[in-house]
Every structure is written in C-alpha cells, then in structure tokens.
Amino acid sequence: MTRTRDDDRRERLSAATWTVLARDGVSGLTLRAVAAEAGCTTGLVLHAFADKRALLLHARELLHSRGTSHADALDDGTRGPADVLRLFLLRSVDAGPGEDDGTDRNEDARVWLGFLAASLSDPVLAERHRQGNHAFLGRCAALIGRALPELGERECEERALALSATVEGLNTLSTADPDRYDRRVRRSAVDGAIRTALAPRP
Amino acid sequence: MTRTRDDDRRERLSAATWTVLARDGVSGLTLRAVAAEAGCTTGLVLHAFADKRALLLHARELLHSRGTSHADALDDGTRGPADVLRLFLLRSVDAGPGEDDGTDRNEDARVWLGFLAASLSDPVLAERHRQGNHAFLGRCAALIGRALPELGERECEERALALSATVEGLNTLSTADPDRYDRRVRRSAVDGAIRTALAPRP
C-alpha cells in the first residue's frame, strides 16, 4: 500500500491529539489546540476529525489497539497464562520489567482519564469505553481460566473485575500523584492483585 | 450561630455545583450552568465562587468532609479496626450494608472523576487531590496497623496504597459502566482487597 500525504497528515494529527489530551486534559482538547500542536489550520483538523468526540474516540482507539497488539504478542504460546497475565497487567500500568528508565511516562493514563471524564456526559464515548473494558475483562478472565481450570466462568469474571479495578485505580491515581504511586508501587500492587486472582479457590 | 441569607445562598449554590458536575462532567461545569441550576444570576455565583476552580475545590471539599465525618463516626471505639476499615471502604464505593436500595447512586464517583480530570491541567487541584488521598491512605494504614501490630509502618502504607487503588478503580469504572461494576461487584472486590490487606505477613 502506498503511503499518501493523507496518511502522513492523519498521523501528525493523531500525535498532536495525543499530546494535547495528555498535557491539557479533556477541557484543553479543542480542534484549535490540535491544529496549533500539529502546525496546521483548524480546517485541516476538521477534514480528518469531525469534532472533539472524533478526536477522543481516535485517542481511545490508539490506546486500545496498542494494548491489544501487545497482549497478542505476549500470548504467543511461549508463556503460561499466569506469566502472560502478569506481563499484560504490568504493561497496563506502565510498570513492566525493563521499563525502569527513571522516568514515569504516565501519558497513557492521562489520555485514558481524559477520555473517561468526557464519557460522563457523552453516551457514545461511554459505550466505547465499556467495549474496551469488556475486552480487557474477557482477556483477563480467559487467562485466569487457563491458569485455574477448576474455576467456573463466573468466578473467573469476578476475579477479572477485581484486577481491572486495581489497574484502573493505579493508573488514575498516578496521573495526579506520580511520586506516591510510582512504578514500584504500581508493580507491587499488581503483583498482589494477581496473587489474589490466581489463588486456588478457598 | 444565626443562619444568614448568605448561608442559604451558599448552600443552594453548593448543591447546584454538585448536580452540574455529577451530571455534565467537568467540561459542563461553568458559572453559568451553576447559576441556571440554582435559579440565580451568574453574578451571584461569582460573589460566592471566584471561578471554576473554586467550584471544583468546593465540590472536592464536600466529598472529603463527608468521608471524614463518616469515618470518624465509625471509629468511635465500638468496633475493631478491621470492621472500621471494611465499613469505611464499603462506604467509599457506595456499597455499604443496608445501602441496597436498588439504585446505584454514583454521583460521588462522578464528581470525584470530574475533579481528578480537571486536576490534570491544574496544579492547585492536583495538590488538593493529593492531600485528600494522603489523608485516606493515612487512615487506612493506621487501621491496618491496629489490626496487625506486627507489620511495620512501611508495610501498612504499601497495603493501604493497594486498597486505595481498588477503591479508586471501582469508583472510576462504575461511572461509565454501573451495570457491570454494580454494588455487588464493588462490595465483593472491596472484601477481596481487605482480605489481602489484612492477611498475616507471609
């Protein structure tokens, strides 16, 4: 497939949307701010994204597709389900092994929080959020089920819900307080939650 | 203390701020929307709250003071620390015993999420958030320490961080998906997190 000028432009706008949302939150995300960040006219942004909702959906799509590709790559048959689950969740809170480069890149978490706040008053965004979260829950529940085949489907789902809450809470809290909820804390909390999720049935 | 017209007005504005923030999110929270909700002029809102940040800080203050009074009332010497911790956290996710009235009032969670999203681009709000969260962590850590005196201070703090993440995640996720993260799920996730937090040291 030949790469077109439109592809380049869309990519530049995509990066600009991401930067503005992570930096200024949802109230700072305007077509104008994205245009300024991308160094183009507001008209050009409008050509690619009809409105603010389209920008937000695009950012959410990026988050989702990156997470999905990463998880698929982990689950390539070389690891057991418990290892896949752990690496997947550590990546979801930006605390995977080998990521200790001294900086706390919580951009993903900031984009995520901005999207979720916007979804409070927008049913389309809320629906997109639910789809993404259900995919996340489904993946976790399947991995738990493979690790502990004696659990029923419902129990796996319940445990997945608790994991999802831990990941969500760590990401949300670290946006405002990256020192307290630093990578070490996030890693340790994820490991604790996984121990609970993978404990044999009492 | 005599109740003045100013008190009444402030209370009406306070209720209006809460309603608008919970309903429309942080991008819908304007002096004008609060005035419309309270049935007064924008000038009157401005008389009580200098700007949008003041409205947000006020809403956050309400959340904090209600939580604090409730926790103080629980910890009145009639219950052990584990019971206080459980009731306190269940209340924090709106899933306390006797609250199963069939409705999911996630207004608090929506106000909280709106505040946090706004704090992404406002250091004053972010600082207020951190203060509140540190008070929450301090209270949880102290209760864990009273329940398990053999743990060191640091271990209690670590366990409190994990509890905080669970509570935060459940509240955040329930704003967009109250059916999936319903009261039963929230209660069960809190109970699981407390079991982990109060487990004897391995």
From TrEMBL, chains A, B:
DNA-binding region range list: 30-49
Key word Transcription present in the record? Answer: yes
Q: Which GO terms describe its molecular function?
A: DNA-binding transcription factor activity; transcription cis-regulatory region binding
Keywords for this protein: DNA-binding, Repressor, Transcription, Transcription regulation
Taking every annotated instance into account, which residue ranges of this chain make up the domain HTH tetR-type? 7-67
Q: Which InterPro entries match?
A: BetI_C, Homeodomain-like_sf, HTH-type_TetR-like_transc_reg, HTH_TetR, Tet_transcr_reg_TetR-rel_C_sf
Q: Which Pfam families match?
A: TetR_C_6, TetR_N
Signal peptide residues are: none
Instruction: Write down the superkingdom of origin.
Output: Bacteria
Q: Which PANTHER family match?
A: HTH-TYPE TRANSCRIPTIONAL REGULATOR RUTR, TRANSCRIPTIONAL REGULATOR-RELATED
> What's this protein's name?
TetR family transcriptional regulator
Which lineage? Answer: Bacteria, Bacillati, Actinomycetota, Actinomycetes, Micrococcales
